[in-house]
Write a structure and sequence with these properties.
Helix content: 25-40%
Number of helices: 6
Number of strands: 6
Distance between the termini: 35 Å
Oligomer: single chain
Radius of gyration: 16 Å
Strand content: 15-25%
Structural class: alpha+beta
Shape: globular
Length: about 180
Amino acid sequence: EQKDSRIRIITQRNSGAGVARNTGLKVAQGEYLSILDGDDFFNSRMLETAYARGKELSAEIVMFRFHRYDHQAKREYNLPHMMKKDNFPQKSTFCVEDMKEMGVNFFFAICGWTWDKLFLRSYIEKLDLQFQDTRIFNDMYFTYSALLVAQTITYLEDALVCQRVNRPGAVSRSAQ
């Protein structure tokens, strides 16, 4: 915040990720929203690359691939079976209906988390989407709702984010 005026630190009582994300939505001012998990890490070009694609195509949602990092094994894994190019129409922007016409069930082709996507803020505000106030999986309703009605989704084959797994103390581990 001291180094970059675009960054604001918001302090509130810990009420879970969904509540924190909704607070962020209320104060967001950028053209696009990036909603990240604190324990994952990101390619230094992630925002620049995804934003450029979204801006170029006036996309409501920009999706990109990811890798997985196993915290215990200290190893990064490519996940070629996740977000496969073959599941998406071979055109610059598409919608869920286009996937349906291809015989692709979008619930199986696209993961319901937010951190591998960029969302046009005006689009999310128009839909008045909020995150659920649940301990885990609070982003699935938000993500799938946004995807279902979007008319301009685009896909980048670049893996721009790395999901960290097997980290002691992670919220996702507490659900196991």
